Task: structure prediction
Amino acid sequence: MKLWPRNAGCRQAPLAPGTRLGNFEIGGILGRGGMGAVYMAVRQNDGQPAAVKVFPRDNTAAGEDARARFEREADALCSLCHPNIANILGHGSCGVIDYIASELVDGASLEQLLRATTLTMRHYRRIITETGRALDHIHSSGIIHCDIKPSNILVSRGGAVKITDFGCARFAPRRRAFSGANEKSWGTAGYMAPEQFDAPEKIGIQTDVYALGVTFYKMFTRRLPGQAGCVPASRVNALVPPAADAVLWRAMKTDQSERYASVSEYCGALIEALDDIAPRSGDAEKYDSAGTRMRARLILILSLAATLAALIVLAALVFKTR
Ligand SMILES: Nc1ncnc2c1ncn2[C@@H]1O[C@H](COP(=O)(O)OP(=O)(O)O)[C@@H](O)[C@H]1O
Ligand SMILES: [Mg+2]
Result:
């Protein structure tokens, strides 16, 4: 459940295919969220496929809020460019509609994937690594996403991660006044860190670390931590080693200062925990790197044993000839 006033966009009739918003021609609908709808589109001057998010404006308080979120999202996207972010192609206004066009991701959200498919260890590793890279870039640009969750992590058919939906983003205080302590904090219940409810002035990198803790717990178990009664992920999913449980819990600590200091530290620890396991199930991919390390160790031991045997034989021969 999104925690902000639903605006007119939720009730708005869908845009007809062929509608022009600036340089973009609207096609079919891709998804609907709290703010309105996202459409497939084509950029007219070069045929570039796009995803266009529309924010219908009205004179109500909710309409004003939609306008503020549009500006915030456009502002955040304009300062970002990364292979693991659905990068902006353009934005503008057309009548009472504000819109943001971004790269079209041909794939599905992690939320949809969790419902429709079974992910392997190879998928887990790539999603963790690429989401981590995107968030590191976002944070180093002075932005906190504030709404990390599986439906905002898109995965292309080729398996690449693209982060989307910067409608709740906050800027580091040096950048924009609207990140002030008095500002209301938005997000999605279940993924929001305690400080998003209690102390918006404390929102920072560790707020996204918390949401990513919940997101990866859900990726492994298909449930939210509360719903599972805090069952360790390793008990729900045989691919997850017990070492990963401690990493997930640390990311979701109530006390912000006890969480990982950065997303790269968290994702690095999680990958390491996933990597360092003994086989417990038949999934061969899970053991890709662990298996390679085992084989390398075996080869080293065998070559040391062979060298030792050769030395003993040599010493025996030398001894005999004396
Ligand atoms: N760049 C994109 N490419 C493909 N699909 C997208 C893109 N952006 C959004 N979508 C689809 O639209 C849905 C809602 O988009 P999102 O930006 O999360 O809006 P909201 O703020 O309404 O949640 C996403 O979950 C996804 O299915
Ligand atoms: Mg969303």
